Amino acid sequence: MTAPGIRDGQDAEDLDVEEVLALVKDGNRPARPAADATPDPAATHGHGQGHGSHAAPSPEARHRKTSATPWADARIRAARAARSPAARRTPVSVTLEDALGLVLATPLTALTDLPSFDTSAMDGWAVAGPGPWAVRDEGVMAGQDGPARLVDGEAVPIATGARIPSDTTAVLRSEHGRTDEKGRLHPGRDLQHGQDIRPRGQECRSGDQLLPAGAVVTPAVLGLAAAAGYDTLAAVPRPRVEVLVLGDELLTEGRPHDGLIRDALGPMLPPWLRAMGAEVVSLRRLGDDAEALHQALTTSAADLIVTTGGTAAGPVDHVHPTLRRLGAELLVDGVEVRPGHPMLLARIAEDRHLVGLPGNPLAAVSGLLTLAEPLLRTLAGRPTPEPYTLPLREAAHGHPQDTRLVPVVLRGDHAAPLHYNGPAMLRGIAAADALVVVPPGGARAGQEAELLDLPWAAAGIGACFT
User: Fold this and answer.
1) What whole-number distance in Å separates Cα of residue 421 and Cα of residue 408?
2) 83: helix, coil or strand?
3) pLDDT digit string (tens) for 247-265?
4) What is the CA radius of gyration of the chain?
5) Is the pLDDT of residue 38 over 80?
6) In whole angstroms, how far apart are CA 427 and each of 96, 121, 361, 430, 432?
7) pLDDT-based confidence at 46, cuts 50/70/90?
8) How many whole angstroms separate alpha carbon 260 and alpha carbon 255?
9) CA-to-CA distance for 452 and 450, rounded, in angstroms?
């Protein structure tokens, strides 16, 4: 049986059971009981990196489902959570070598005129007055201080970047000058006053603001800062993140066997978080141990703790009970998004937060982009990216009530949805350039849809993991 809204070639197994049932019910067809559905063979229980438990939800789980936050609102809440006075970061002074990817905590103000003296923009001759000119034997090289002034009718060879002698009228480019049999220099074309001279302060004057606070330090910013006289920059420090991987069924090496599956999130999350501008201080695997989780949360010094799995209401799902034990404030408890709806955001201290990701790998990616990215962006002082849309090359099925995030590749001026986009699958996102935000009910071919970029898709692998 194929649920309404599932496009041709989209297997029902690409969705979790709850989504299939919702799509079936929306089409007024009799719903197949969850017990009849074929579970993901990788799934072991509700908290792990499989599809999750298909048992009837507890009253607590049903309450969390009805109180789920709309997807767009969840992202806004996550960004606002990091704006509290206690969460604000104290700026640090970092060398230029360590500043790449950080955000300026104060405006970048020129410490000198740029250029700091009149310089030659070309190799050629500095000339004074009208030609022809008598040429000096000794030229002016870059790095020389105080070359002798010129008098009318005189020229001197000069290199690009060299200091212009006093009373120079213009610089005659090498390819535009010729010398006669007497060694006198003649222009090959008309020469304008000041031609090919970069005057002092052409780019900026000392004290000019070059960039505002909040600008991201790119390689070009490093070059500008160095030219303007800086050795260090005042920047917002990277948010510190600790990753806690939960689940007894997870292997760290080898092939899955005997009900055990490989941990896909441990290798994936730290570099993804670094691409978001975070400093990952540790990755810890705790298994299904409530006391170990409590100990980890109470002793962590990270700005953000990211947990994987354990956000449901099964017998070994310890995240909610541990947060209640700590007296944490749940800011987001479930999100109207597929995959990833059991995600959560909690404030465990005035300056510390926790993002609980579902255990299914693509669902965890959804939680990462929905809750962790806005919070980390705000903590790091990064600007909110401008949203953009592209038309879809083909229709994308949707959930009846919830937003859906689907991996896509960008092809020209269209986004093409990818298959293998079920909650437990990484094959689609591994080939993707972005995630498309599919509204409830789905999106037709040609419809404009919002995109969430993957940081390495445009910048390249080496550029974003700094």
Assistant:
1) 10
2) coil
3) 878 877 789 888 888 888 9
4) 31
5) no
6) 38, 53, 10, 5, 9
7) very low
8) 9
9) 7
- Token pair, residue 29, equals 């067809």
Full-prediction pTM beyond 0.85? no
H-assigned helices in 276-419: 290-299, 319-326, 361-367, 373-379
DSSP track, 165-199: PTT--EEEEGGGEEE-TT-EEEESS---TTTTEE-
Q: Which two tokens stand for residue 281?
A: 């201080």
**Tens of pLDDT, residues 200-252:** 999 999 999 999 999 999 999 999 999 999 999 999 999 999 999 988 788 77
Distance CA 369, CA 432 (A): 14
What is the percent of the chain where pLDDT is above 70? 84
Nearest one of 407, 322, 335, 320 to 60, comparing CA atoms: 320
Q: From the centroid of its chain, how far is CA 242? A: 18
Q: Determine how many CB atoms are found less than 10 A away from the CB of residue 383.
A: 10
> How is residue 422 written in tokens?
């079920």
Using an 8 Å Cβ cutoff, are 359 and 308 in contact? yes
CA separation, residue 72 to residues 22, 166, 269, 307, 402 (Å): 21, 63, 22, 22, 11
* CA dihedral (247, 251, 256, 260) positive or negative: negative
Q: Write out the two tokens for 362.
A: 């693509």
Question: What CA–CA distance (Å, rounded) separates 31 from 153?
Answer: 96
Q: How confident is the model at residue 379 (pLDDT cuts 50, 70, 90)?
A: very high
Query: Nearest to residue 170, comparing CAs of 220, 131, 115, 210?
Result: 131
Q: Is 351 exposed, middle or buried (0-12, 13-18, 19+ CB in 10 A)?
A: middle
Show the tokens assigned to 99: 């500043």
Sign of torsion, CA 297 89 383 453? negative
